[in-house]
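User: For my dataset I need records formatted as: sequence, then structure tokens, nothing else. Please produce one.
Assistant:
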Amino acid sequence: MINLKQIRIITVLITAILFANLTYGQTDSTKDQDSEFQTVFGKSGEKTNISGFGALMLDFGNIEHNLGLNIGIDGAVLINQSFYVGIYGQALATTPSYTYEVYSDNNKTFNLTRNAFLGHGGLLVGYIFSPNSPIHVGLSTRFGMGGISLFEDFVHQPYDPSKPYYYENPYIAPLYVFSPQLDLEMNLTK
């Protein structure tokens, strides 16, 4: 029987393999200038260049004195090599444990340990300044929603067929994300 940890590892590996080729960013079109489409929103005599990018994300941080690893993916439509709009998704790959005090009906307290899971996704908006320079700066922001949940760790406990196959008494809370970024980018090849 496959446990939750094995499923998580398999999911991370499959995601990394499937999206490894999506890390193209700011591709320069080498098409003939006369064969490109004119657009309604372009200036007179100028043509709008539409391309895109996608990337894998890895974020490391401290979660309750443990290493926290976030993995995710983002992708966007890039207009004139400067402005982009897209989507992103991110989830916690590690499961940190939290121990907290719980009060029972007879006013006694006991410690309860739960594992945490966090995930969020949403809109990605950004602007790249001087995209034709070898080194340039960009600003972007992620606006998203998600959730954080605390649940029992049934993976490390002995199998009990009388228990249902789901997390008992999970605590789930909504999460809203506003994450501004300052990017430093390089054009390596043309």
